[in-house]
C-alpha cells in the first residue's frame, strides 16, 4: 500500500498502534483496504533494519529519536544483503509464532518492522507471512515492486512523489492475478493462439512476475531448460531473498516455483485458463459500460457497420496491454527517488519533531550523501535543498554565515590585532564578544574540494574528483596547471600545504573572492554548490559532505574498524569463524562505529579529540581509532586509493572496450584473470604482514559503494577529456576480486552524457539475463540491482555471456 506525503503521519500512527497492542479500526485514517489485516492484541517492539549507507544511518537515527520520544521499544540492526534480511525476518516470524503458542521467549514480540534504504523494489509480501506484524518501508529504490503496492496494509510504502495507479495513463499498473507471476504459459498460448508464438507448450508456474516475463518473451531457443532454470528468487522484481545457487541442467518437467511454497494460491495457478481473474473481467466490463453510457444522451445512432465490434478491445488484448505495461514498469531501469533521511525528517516535521536541529542536520547529511554518490541528480538535489533551507531559516532565522565563520576562525580578533589602532572596532560602535553557535546549521555555497576544512588546500584540490577530472591531475601537465591556478589567485605553495584552518585570514578570504574569477580560464565552472555547514563549537565548522565522506569510510572499510578494536585473542577467535560470519561481524562493528560517529555529543568521560561533533577541531590532531575524526582521516586515505587505482587502470590500458560496455578487473596479483595488478595505496590501519595488508585492501575495494565511486571517477575522467563521449560513450563494468571468498564483486555503472545527471541503470536485468543463460554460481544479494557477486571460475564467461546477450537484444 502506498502512502502519499500528506498521509505519512497516518502510517506512523499505525506503527504506534501496532507496537502498543491497539487493534485497527476502519476509522484509523489509513486508506481503506478489504484484504485481511494483521491482528495485534499485545504489546510489542519495533525492529528497524537499515542498509549500510550514510543516508540510511541518518534516517535510522531520526526514526530512533522519534520512537524513543513516543516510548516505543525498538532495536536497530544492519543488513548487508537480502540473505541477512531473510534471516532477520525469519527470526521475527519464529519469535511471533512462539508468542502465539504461549511459548516463553526472551524478548517481546516484534509488531512492526521498518525497512530503511531497502525493500521497495522487492516483493516483501512473500518474504515472510506477516500474520501479526506489519512492514513499513522508507526506501529510495525504484521502481516499486507491484506486490508491495497491491498487497494491502501488510506492507506500507512511504512514497515521496504523487503517482497514479491503474488506468491507461497510470504510472503503476493496476492490481491483477499476475503480479506474483502465477500465470501459466498455457494461458498465454490461449491468448496468443493467432500469433506466431505457439512454441510455449509447457505450463510454467513462477512466483515472480519479472522472471516470468523475461522467460516468456526473451528466450525462444533450444536452451529453454537452461533459460528457465531458476537462478535466484531475488532477481528484479524480487520475491524471496537469494541463496547461492549453482547452475545445472534440470529435467524438462521441472517447474520454476519454489518447492513447499507457503502460498496456497500457487496451487490455483494451473487453472488460470478455466477461471480468469475476475478483476480483469470487471475492468473490461467497466470499459464497455463506460462506452455505452457515454452515448446515452446522443441521438440514436445509425446501425453500426459489421466491423464495429472489432474496434473494441477484446479481453485478450486488454490483458496483453496490461502485461506489456507491467513489463515496461520493471524493465525501464532502476533509479532512486528522494533519500530516506529526508523522508524521515519530513515525517517528523508532520508530527512534533520538526524543531529538533539534530534531526534536520541528519536530513542534510542524508541528502548530501545521495547527491555525492550519484543517486540524486542536480535538479533533484536543488529541489530538496530548497526545502531544507526553508527549515534552516525557520530554526535559525538569523543566518549570518560570515559572522559565524569569523567567530569560529577568530577572524575578528585577528583583524583587530592587525589594525593600526586597537580601538578602531570599539570606535565604530562594535563590541567584540565570544560567539558560541554550537549546533547552528548554516546554508552556504560549498566548493567541490575534498575535506578542505580538515586538510591542506593543496591536498584538497589534488584529491577532488571535480578538480582532478577537469585539470587531469594524474598527469604532470595537469599538476602544472594547478600550480598556475594557485599562483594566479595569489596563493604561495608553502601556505597551500599548511592545514587550511591555520592559513591566514587574508588567504582564506582571497579564495572566496578569486576562485570564481579564475574558474572559467581553467574549465572549473560550477565549482560550488549549495551545501550545509554546522558549527561544532568555538573552533570548528563541519560540512555535510565532510560527514558523508567520514561515515562512508567507516562503513566501507569494515576491516579497519575491526582492527581498531581487535586484540590477539579476538583474532584467534575470528580464525574459527566462517567467511560469512566473519564478514557479518565486521559490518556490524563498522555499523556501530559509523552510527556513533553521527552522534552530535558523546556523554562518555575523557572523549578523544575528534570522536564526535562536540570535540572536533578543524586542523586538529585526530588520533583516535574510532569516531568522526578517524572517519575523516580514513576518508582521505580511501580517496587517495580510489584515484591512484583509476590512474593505474588508465596508464596500464586495463580497461577493455566492447560493443556495449567497457570492463576492467581489479586483481590481487598479476596471475589474475586480467593478467594485471592494480598497485595502489593501502588504507592506513594496522596489519600483521604484507600479505594480510594486501588482502584487506582488496577486500575493502570489493565493496559495492567503493567500486561505484571508482567507476564514477573513471567516467568523470574520460568525460572531460572527450575519450568516452559521443559514439564512444559506453557503460562501465568493474570486477573486483574478493580473495577471502574466491569470488568477484561486479558493479555496472551507467554513463551520463552531462555531469550531474543520473540515468536509469539497466544492468540489473542485463546481469540477470546473462546469468540465466549460462551455468555458474552467482549471488544477487545486494540491495542495488546493478551489483552481483560471481564465482572466480565463472567471471570471465559471465562477461562474455553479458556481451553476447546485450548484442543479441
Automatic annotation (TrEMBL):
Pfam families: CDC45. The keyword Nucleus applies. GO terms for cellular component: nucleus. Residues 227-238, 250-260, 268-277 have a biased composition (Basic and acidic residues). One of its GO terms (biological process) is DNA replication. Residues 21-41, 166-315 are annotated as: Disordered. It is found in: Nucleus. The keyword Cell cycle applies. Residues 168-178, 186-199, 206-226 have a biased composition (Acidic residues). Signal peptide: none annotated. Keywords: Cell cycle, DNA replication, Nucleus. Belongs to the CDC45 family. This is CDC45-like protein. It comes from Cyclotella cryptica.
Amino acid at each position: 500500500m502506498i502512502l502519499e506525503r500528506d498521509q505519512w503521519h497516518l502510517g506512523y500512527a499505525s506503527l504506534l498502534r501496532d507496537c502498543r497492542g491497539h487493534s485497527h479500526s476502519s476509522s484509523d485514517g489509513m486508506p481503506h483496504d478489504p484484504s485481511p489485516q494483521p491482528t495485534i492484541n499485545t504489546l510489542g517492539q519495533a525492529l528497524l533494519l537499515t542498509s549500510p549507507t550514510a543516508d540510511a544511518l541518518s534516517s535510522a537515527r531520526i526514526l530512533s529519536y522519534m520512537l524513543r520520544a513516543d516510548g516505543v521499544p525498538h532495536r536497530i540492526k544492519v543488513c548487508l544483503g537480502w540473505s541477512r534480511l531473510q534471516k532477520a525476518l525469519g527470526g521475527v516470524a519464529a519469535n511471533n509464532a512462539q508468542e502465539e503458542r504461549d511459548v516463553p521467549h526472551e524478548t517481546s514480540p516484534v509488531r512492526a518492522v521498518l525497512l530503511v534504504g531497502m525493500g521497495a523494489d522487492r516483493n516483501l509480501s512473500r518474504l515472510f507471512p506477516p500474520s501479526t506484524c506489519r512492514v513499513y518501508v522508507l526506501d529510495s529504490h525504484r521502481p516499486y515492486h507491484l506486490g508491495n503496492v497491491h498487497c494491502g496494509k501488510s506492507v506500507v510504502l512511504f512514497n515521496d512523489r504523487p503517482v497514479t495507479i491503474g488506468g491507461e495513463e497510470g504510472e503503476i499498473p493496476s492490481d491483477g492475478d499476475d503480479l506474483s507471476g502465477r500465470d501459466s504459459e498455457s494461458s498465454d498460448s490461449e491468448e496468443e493462439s493467432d500469433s506466431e508464438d505457439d512454441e510455449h507448450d509447457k505450463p510454467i508456474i513462477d512466483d515472480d512476475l519479472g522472471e516470468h516475463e523475461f522467460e516468456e518473451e526473451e528466450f525462444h531457443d533450444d536452451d529453454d531448460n537452461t533459460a528457465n532454470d531458476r537462478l535466484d528468487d531475488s532477481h528484479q522484481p524480487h520475491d524471496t531473498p537469494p541463496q547461492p545457487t549453482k547452475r545445472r541442467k534440470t529435467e524438462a518437467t521441472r517447474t520454476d516455483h519454489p518447492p513447499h511454497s507457503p502460498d496456497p494460491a500457487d496451487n490455483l495457478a494451473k487453472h488460470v485458463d478455466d477461471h480468469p481473474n475476475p478483476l480483469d473481467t470487471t475492468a473490461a466490463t467497466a470499459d464497455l459500460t463506460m462506452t455505452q453510457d457515454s452515448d446515452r444522451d446522443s441521438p440514436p445512432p445509425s446501425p453500426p457497420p459489421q466491423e464495429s465490434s472489432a474496434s473494441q478491445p477484446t479481453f485478450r488484448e486488454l490483458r496483453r496491454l496490461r502485461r506489456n505495461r507491467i513489463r515496461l514498469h520493471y524493465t525501464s531501469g532502476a533509479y532512486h527517488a528522494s533519500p530516506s533521511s529526508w523522508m524521515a525528517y519530513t515525517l517528523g516535521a508532520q508530527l512534533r519533531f520538526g524543531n529538533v536541529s539534530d534531526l534536520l542536520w541528519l536530513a542534510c547529511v542524508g541528502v548530501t550523501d545521495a547527491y555525492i554518490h550519484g543517486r540524486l541528480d542536480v535538479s533533484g538535489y536543488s529541489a530538496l535543498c530548497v526545502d531544507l533551507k526553508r527549515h534552516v531559516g525557520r530554526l535559525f532565522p538569523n543566518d549570518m554565515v560570515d559572522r559565524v565563520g569569523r567567530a569560529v576562525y577568530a577572524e575578528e580578533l585577528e583583524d583587530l590585532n592587525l589594525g593600526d589602532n586597537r580601538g578602531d572596532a570599539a570606535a565604530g560602535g562594535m563590541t567584540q564578544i565570544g560567539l558560541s553557535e554550537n549546533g547552528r546549521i548554516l546554508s552556504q555555497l560549498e566548493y567541490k574540494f575534498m575535506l578542505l576544512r580538515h586538510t591542506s588546500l593543496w591536498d584538497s584540490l589534488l584529491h577532488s574528483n571535480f578538480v582532478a577530472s577537469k585539470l587531469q591531475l594524474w598527469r604532470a601537465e595537469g599538476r602544472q596547471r594547478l600550480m598556475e591556478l594557485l599562483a594566479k589567485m595569489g596563493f604561495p605553495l608553502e601556505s597551500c600545504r599548511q592545514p587550511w584552518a591555520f592559513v591566514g585570514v587574508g588567504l582564506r578570504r582571497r579564495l572566496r573572492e578569486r576562485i570564481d574569477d579564475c574558474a572559467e580560464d581553467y574549465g572549473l565552472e560550477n565549482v560550488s554548490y549549495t551545501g550545509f555547514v554546522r558549527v561544532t563549537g568555538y573552533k570548528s565548522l563541519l560540512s555535510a559532505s565532510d560527514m558523508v565522506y567520514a561515515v562512508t569510510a567507516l562503513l566501507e572499510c569494515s576491516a579497519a574498524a575491526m582492527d581498531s578494536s581487535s586484540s590477539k585473542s579476538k583474532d584467534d577467535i575470528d580464525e574459527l569463524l566462517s567467511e560469512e560470519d566473519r564478514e557479518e561481524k565486521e559490518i556490524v562493528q563498522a555499523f556501530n562505529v559509523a552510527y556513533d560517529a553521527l552522534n552530535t555529543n558523546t556523554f562518555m568521560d575523557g572523549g578523544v579529540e575528534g570522536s564526535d561533533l562536540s570535540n572536533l577541531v578543524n586542523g586538529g590532531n585526530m588520533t583516535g581509532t574510532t569516531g568522526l575524526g578517524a572517519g575523516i582521516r580514513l576518508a582521505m586515505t580511501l580517496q587517495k586509493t580510489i584515484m591512484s587505482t583509476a590512474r593505474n587502470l588508465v596508464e596500464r590500458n586495463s580497461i577493455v572496450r566492447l560493443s556495449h560496455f567497457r570492463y576492467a578487473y581489479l586483481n590481487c596479483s598479476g596471475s589474475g584473470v586480467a593478467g594485471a595488478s592494480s598497485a595502489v595505496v593501502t588504507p592506513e590501519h594496522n596489519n600483521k604482514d604484507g600479505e594480510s595488508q594486501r588482502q584487506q585492501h582488496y577486500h575493502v575495494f570489493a565493496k559495492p559503494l567503493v567500486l561505484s565511486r571508482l567507476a564514477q571517477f573513471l567516467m568523470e575522467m574520460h568525460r572531460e577529456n572527450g575519450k568516452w563521449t559521443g559514439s564512444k560513450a559506453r557503460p562501465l563494468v568493474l570486477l573486483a576480486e574478493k580473495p577471502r571468498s574466491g569470488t568477484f564483486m561486479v558493479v555496472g555503472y551507467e554513463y551520463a552524457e552531462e555531469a550531474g545527471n543520473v540515468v536509469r541503470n539497466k544492468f540489473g536485468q542485463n546481469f540477470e539475463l546473462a546469468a540465466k543463460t549460462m551455468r555458474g554460481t552467482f549471488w544477487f544479494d545486494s540491495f542495488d540491482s546493478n551489483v552481483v557477486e560471481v564465482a572466480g571460475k565463472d567471471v570471465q564467461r559471465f562477461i562474455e555471456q553479458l556481451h553476447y546477450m546485450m548484442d543479441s537484444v
